[in-house]
Design brief:
7-stranded mixed beta sheet; 14 strands; binds pyridoxal-5'-phosphate; globular
């Protein structure tokens, strides 16, 4: 497959290649996390990032739309984040005790998201989800969790289920089979997960009619970001809220992707639905490892009372929390979201025009969207089976080579940051036009 040609010169990746070969000898697969291995011709080694761009060890420059898988909403090495971390590092990187920043950040987050009356901090989104599930099970005395096909909630045994099942394993659309993501996940951990199709309120009603008194929680991304950016159908989230209220189950919003990304108050502010528990991570701390689990006071009281054990050596780590006020301040500046949205709209519209002739389309309507090749907008993970994995990966390979960096998975996502500019968009569109010409 050609990744270079007129308009798209082959990149010199010699040092990355050598580094990858050396890394493979000492790190599993030569990468730090599963999907990073999907970059072709081999994973690229990055030396530094600044704003919307990053540079690899061979000196190649990339306009970055992956943003570290989403967190870098203020771009790379934002001067105020660097300053905040440096300041905190001089005061100490951890105390294993309460500190003023913890209070400040908890007060700000609970004010931004009133459904979270009490919070706890962790490092990864996965941890926040696991904490929420534990709280929900303790609170209801029930064990079943309803989750939706295609939604990603982290890599843990209890939730890494039916993220990308194949046609042959997924089971029936109304009653999907719970399919583990990985070898080594024991049946016992995911047998308590009921998988349903997202946006199918009828299927949720049906399951609750049969097993309401066993269901601890419904766990959902309030906007599906993990298979092409899909909005909830009107009334779907309200329907989940009502079903949970009627049955005494808890509603958990996994806002690890959407929290502060789609609005300061997260997706819950946009849809006006209050979950019982919320999980956050990624953009909240602009690239430092922080996650949040929070919820209604009487539910989180289980954690306060130590009946639910929620702990971690690095919880509330001050070095990482130091970035949060900077992110919240920047995002609170008037016009910030509007500007990002306007750049994204232009990029989305023009990308659509460019890739349509080769069978592509853009899915998503916010500062996060994805490209795909197939018959058109999808509403469910199963509709995504119609998309061509080969074609999107082919476009990605050419774009990496052309200096446009996007997530290395067929379920495409592009993220915008406050630091992307009109110039970035123009250059990106030129590079995509060259890539399309090469693929036509
Ligand atoms: C919606 C959602 N929840 C949870 C996670 C897991 O977060 P982490 O990778 O920080 O464990 C992710 C990661 O992409 C996610 O997209």
């Amino acid at each position: 497959m050609r990744t270079s040609g007129p308009g798209v010169k082959p990149l010199d990746l010699e040092r990355s290649h050598k580094m990858f070969e050396a890394t493979r000898q000492v790190m599993a697969g030569g990468v730090g996390s599963a999907d990073r291995a999907l970059v072709e011709p081999h994973p690229i080694f990055i030396e530094r990032g600044a704003g919307s761009r990053m540079w690899d060890v061979d000196g190649n420059e990339y306009i970055d739309y992956m943003l570290g898988y989403g967190p870098l909403i203020l771009g790379h090495a934002h001067p105020k984040i660097v300053e905040a971390i440096e300041r905190q590092a001089r005061l100490g990187t951890m105390y294993g005790a309460g500190h003023p920043l913890e209070l400040e950040v908890a007060e700000r987050l609970t004010a931004l998201m009133p459904s979270m009356e009490l919070v706890r901090f962790g490092q990864s989104g996965t941890e926040a989800v696991l904490s929420a599930i534990r709280v929900a099970r303790a609170s209801t005395g029930r064990s079943l969790i309803v989750k939706f096909e295609g939604h990603y909630h982290g890599w843990a045994d209890q939730v890494a289920v039916s993220y990308a099942p194949s046609k042959s394993t997924a089971g029936s659309p109304r009653r999907p089979t719970a399919v583990p993501m990985s070898e080594g996940q024991p049946y016992g951990t995911y047998e308590d997960v009921i998988v349903l199709g997202w946006n199918d309120i009828g299927a949720v009603q049906e399951v609750f009619a049969e097993r309401a008194n066993e269901i601890a929680a419904v766990l959902t991304e309030p906007i599906a970001f993990n298979y092409g950016v899909i909005e909830p159908e009107p009334g779907f989230l309200a329907g989940l809220r009502q079903i949970c209220d009627e049955s005494g189950s808890l509603l958990i919003f996994d806002e690890v992707q959407t929290g502060v990304r789609v609005a300061l108050g997260g997706a819950q502010a946009l849809c006006g639905i209050s979950p019982d528990l919320t999980c956050m991570g990624k953009a909240i701390s602009g690239g430092l490892p922080v996650s949040v689990v929070g919820g209604r006071r009487e539910v989180m009281a289980l954690v306060s009372d130590r009946r639910v054990f929620q702990a971690g050596t690095y919880n509330s780590n001050p070095l990482c929390l130091a970035a949060i006020p900077v992110v919240l301040d920047r995002l609170s500046e008037p016009g910030t979201y509007e500007r990002m949205e306007s750049l994204s709209r232009r990029l989305r519209n023009e990308l659509q025009t460019l890739i349509e002739p080769i069978g592509g389309y853009v899915q998503g309507s916010s500062t996060v969207f994805g490209l795909a090749f197939g018959p058109g907008q999808i509403r469910t993970m199963r509709e995504g089976w119609r998309n061509s994995t080969a074609k999107i990966m082919q476009l990605k390979r050419v774009l990496w080579n052309a200096g446009v960096y996007t997530k290395p998975t067929p379920r495409d996502i592009w993220y915008l940051s406050t630091e992307h500019t009109e110039k970035d968009i123009e250059e990106t569109l030129e590079r995509v036009a060259d890539a399309v010409a090469l693929l036509s």
